[in-house]
Amino acid sequence: MKRHKRFSPSLRLHEQLEERRLLSVSPWHNTENPVDVNRDGVLSPFDALAGINELNFGGARQLNDNAVVRNSYAFDVNNDGYLSSIDVLRTINAMNAEGENHTLLKIRVQPEDAEGNAIDTIGVGEGFNLSVYVQDLAGRDVSESGVFAAYLDVMFDTTLASVAGDISYGPDYQNGKTGSVVAEGLDEVGAFDGFNPLGTDELLLFTVPMTGAAAGTVTFDADPADIFPAHESLLFGVLDGQSDGAVLPEDIEYVDATIQIGSNTGPTAVNDAYVVDQDLTLAVNVADGVLSNDTDPNNDMLTASLIDDVTNGTLALESDGSFTYTPTPGFTGTDSFTYVA
Fold this sequence. Notes:
This protein is mostly beta strands. It has helices at about 45-60, 85-95, and strands spanning about 1-5, 60, 80-85, 105-110, 120-125, 125-135, 145-155, 160-165, 170, 175-180, 185-190, 205-210, 215-225, 235, 250-255, 255-260, 270-275, 280-285, 305-310, 315, 325, 335-340. The protein has 3 domains: about 1-15 and about 265-340, no CATH class; about 45-95, no CATH class; about 105-260, Immunoglobulin-like. The chain contains 2 helices and 22 strands. The strands form 5 sheets. Strands 5, 7, 10, 11, 13, 14 and 16 form a 7-stranded mixed sheet that branches.
């Protein structure tokens, strides 16, 4: 908003690798929570007991569509197509780990400005980047650690924030790239690394440009990917108790993010007046400058830009609102300039 500043001398006034795809889903494996054998949504001793009873009833055996089972329980915990004591052990280990910090992988969502700084507020129509970072938390030696592959869904209110460009993947994740924009957000986004372990630092998985479409609060909800084993999250090396680096969904910490999209109302500038004696220079600091009494409802940082210069002297206006004014020798009266905040 433009405002005039008046003063009167003597008067006061921010080579793709092959991708595996699951062609069919085993009826004996719970893809959402593998250790929830009885599919009741709760991990309990009943899940382990169900596996034990089934082994006692029919022994270890191959599981397929014709396998003899007495119910529709998801006995194949490790999804190898075989019912064995390993499936029971995984369930028991999961129960023993409950209440402990068993997080192996962190996947974190972060809204950012163009310089990569984290932000939590923007205006309607303003652009920002949504970035996702991954980090190996398994606590192993750095030389054999690192996130090899990570895939996820990111759900958000697409009426408030919209995707404004293509997904770009981090420099360490250039293989097996997948991801699409759907009505609910981002679906099956991820990629995997090459041959060398990446260590335990947090690394960029992908970034997608976004735009604030309407005023409101947007939560970016990170969820596990749905397509297994093609979109499993994997760590380099072999994890304890496993034959590979596959990370179970319950061992992944998903860190969501929220951004406030405001109406982006413009700032309010207030007229000011300064006094300087004839043939002297007026120097005004930031605290008393032209922005000192201006306000912005979105709490954006204000800067001053000169629109109309003075006519009876010389003016040096700084972007922070401070300025110096030297009147023409012998001039008395009122001079003014206009700036925009």
